[in-house]
């Protein structure tokens, strides 16, 4: 069993995962495959022909390395994981993206990688340029701006600006979106590949675009510096500044680059210039620097030569493809324009139809209202006519009433005058009666006084008569008979009795006249009261009639 395990057959393949900027792929590779075999497989899979810009990068310890095409994959310092992870990235950058990047897939991969480097702040970008780049990124993703579709907040889930820019200004996400959208609206009509190319054309002018930085020292006393390698040449920076190099060595001015262990030597083409030496502490980093220098220099020299047949064919095909796509976009734009015009015409027709329907509805409503108004006006006219007749009748009645009131007023005035005259006459009569009453009372008082005096006189006369009788008739005259004496006495008594009856009768007459006067006076007072009440009622009736006329 141990022998069988010892001679156990090793697997013939290994698993690889390749991560591009917009996809992940897994491959089963043969053990004997070199780096070029895997790289070519990836390029064929994604349809990439401009392979000289790209490479497969992997992480090793605290740095990264690029897969060497001439060595077997498993013989390199690749991770021992399964599957082994590689990142398909741009290793070298063009000097002028518009001239060198031919394929649309190449442009797209560069666009995605550069955008990620800007958002991750590996490439410094000013706030103004960041907003402009973000607007082209939005155009590439969403197409033409449509305010009916792209409502406020549609960019809330998109990462478009570096965090440094967001923190630099006291602005909300809505404010940033408003600024980006303002630029985005200006890019109408730009296709996705054109928007990505515009993005790269702006990004290639940034100071840190396409530069790979490495920590170096100029001498063994550890004076820290940064080495920058890009498509233009080599640059020496201060540790705190990656934007402005202290010294630059363009590829056209470099005669030779060599390194021995940790020491690099840059020999200028101009022999009068000093040789520049720097040191790097790690051997793996030194190899990486040398790879980048060789690759960038080769591309630099290649750009200055006539394009190969393959590149010429690619450019011709790309030109034809762009012309075809441009024609298709123009046709599409024309069709879109015609469709939009047709839709606008349809909307205008529908709007006009709705407008005509509204106008017809309003006209019908107006007609109904006019008919109702006509009926109402006819009814009102009839009512007005009846009211006019009624008012004329009332006016006639009012006129008759006025005339009657005038006659009544005249009669009332005449009656009032007569009543006042009667009242005056009654008052005069009352005054006369009062005067007569007073005169009668005075006469009655005189008569009473006379009666009293007469009674007194009678009493005195009787007394005297008695006295005379006593003195004259106690002794009878012998010559006169007794019957004569009695007769004389009776005669005297009869005379005196006559006087007493007259007095009574007079007193009774006086009393009767007084009672009659009192009764007449009472009757006159009642008549005066009746006259006054009639006069008051006439006055009230006259006032009521005057108010009625007003």
TrEMBL record:
Its membrane topology: Peripheral membrane protein
InterPro entries according to UniProt: Band_41_domain (IPR019749), ERM (IPR011174), ERM_C_dom (IPR011259), ERM_FERM_C (IPR041789), ERM_helical (IPR046810), Ez/rad/moesin-like (IPR000798), FERM/acyl-CoA-bd_prot_sf (IPR014352), FERM_2 (IPR035963)
Pfam families: ERM_C (PF00769), ERM_helical (PF20492), FERM_C (PF09380), FERM_M (PF00373), FERM_N (PF09379)
Keywords, alphabetical: Cell membrane, Coiled coil, Membrane
Cellular localization per UniProt: Cell membrane
Native organism taxonomy: Eukaryota, Metazoa, Chordata, Craniata, Vertebrata
Coiled coil: 315-464, 514-541
Domain of life: Eukaryota
Domain FERM per the UniProt entry, residue ranges: 14-304
Keyword hit for Cell membrane: yes
Keyword Coiled coil appears in the UniProt entry: yes
Gene Ontology MF terms: actin binding
Binding, a 1,2-diacyl-sn-glycero-3-phospho-(1D-myo-inositol): 68-71, 287
Gene Ontology, cellular component aspect: plasma membrane
Protein's recorded name: FERM domain-containing protein
């Amino acid at each position: 069993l141990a022998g069988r395990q010892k001679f156990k057959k090793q697997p013939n393949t290994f698993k690889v995962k390749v991560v591009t900027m917009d996809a992940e792929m897994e491959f089963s590779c043969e053990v004997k495959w070199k780096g070029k075999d895997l790289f070519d497989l990836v390029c064929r899979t994604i349809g990439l022909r401009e392979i000289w810009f790209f490479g497969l990068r992997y992480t090793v310890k605290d740095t990264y390395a690029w897969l060497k095409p001439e060595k077997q994959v498993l013989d390199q310092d690749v991770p021992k994981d399964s599957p082994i992870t590689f990142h398909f990235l741009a290793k070298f950058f063009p000097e002028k993206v518009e001239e060198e990047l031919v394929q649309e897939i190449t442009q797209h991969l560069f666009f995605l990688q550069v955008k990620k480097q800007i958002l991750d702040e590996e490439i410094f970008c000013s706030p103004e340029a960041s907003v402009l780049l973000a607007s082209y990124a939005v155009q590439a993703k969403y197409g033409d701006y449509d305010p009916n579709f792209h409502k406020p907040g549609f960019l809330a889930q998109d990462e478009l600006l570096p965090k440094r820019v967001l923190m630099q200004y006291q602005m909300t996400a809505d404010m940033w979106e408003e600024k980006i959208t303002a630029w985005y609206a200006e890019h109408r009509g730009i296709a996705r590949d054109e928007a990505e190319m515009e993005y790269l054309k702006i990004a290639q002018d940034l100071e840190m675009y396409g530069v790979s930085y490495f920590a170096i020292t100029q001498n063994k006393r550890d004076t820290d510096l940064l080495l920058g390698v890009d498509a233009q040449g080599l640059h020496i920076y201060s540790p705190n500044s990656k934007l402005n190099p202290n010294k630059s060595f363009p590829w056209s001015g470099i005669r030779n680059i060599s390194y021995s262990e940790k020491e690099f030597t840059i020999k200028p083409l101009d022999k009068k210039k000093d040789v520049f030496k720097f040191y790097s502490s790690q051997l793996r980093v030194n190899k990486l620097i040398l790879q980048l220098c060789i690759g960038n220099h080769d591309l630099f020299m290649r750009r200055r030569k006539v394009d190969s047949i393959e590149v010429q064919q690619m450019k011709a095909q790309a030109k034809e493809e762009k012309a075809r796509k441009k024609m298709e976009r123009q046709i599409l734009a024309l069709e879109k324009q015609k469709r939009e015009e047709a839709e606008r015409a349809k909307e205008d027709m529908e709007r006009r139809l709705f407008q005509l329907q509204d106008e017809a509805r309003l006209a019908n409503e107006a007609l109904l209202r006019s008919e109702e108004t006509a009926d109402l006006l006819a009814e009102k006219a009839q009512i007005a006519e009846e009211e006019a007749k009624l008012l004329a009748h009332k006016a006639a009645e009012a006129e008759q009433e006025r005339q009657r009131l005038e006659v009544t007023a005249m009669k009332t005035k005449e009656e009032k005058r007569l009543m006042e005259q009667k009242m005056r006459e009654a008052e005069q009569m009352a005054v006369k009666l009062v005067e007569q009453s007073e005169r009668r009372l005075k006469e009655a008082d005189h008569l009473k006084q006379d009666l009293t005096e007469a009674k007194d006189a009678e009493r005195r006369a009787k007394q005297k008569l008695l006295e005379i009788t006593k003195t004259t008739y106690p002794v009878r005259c012998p010559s006169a008979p007794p019957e004569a004496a009695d007769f004389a006495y009776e005669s005297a008594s009869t005379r005196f009795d006559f006087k007493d009856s007259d007095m009574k009768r007079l007193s009774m007459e006086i009393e009767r006249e007084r009672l009659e006067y009192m009764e007449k006076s009472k009757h006159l007072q009642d008549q005066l009261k009746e006259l006054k009440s009639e006069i008051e009622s006439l006055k009230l009736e006259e006032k009521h009639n005057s108010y009625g006329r007003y």
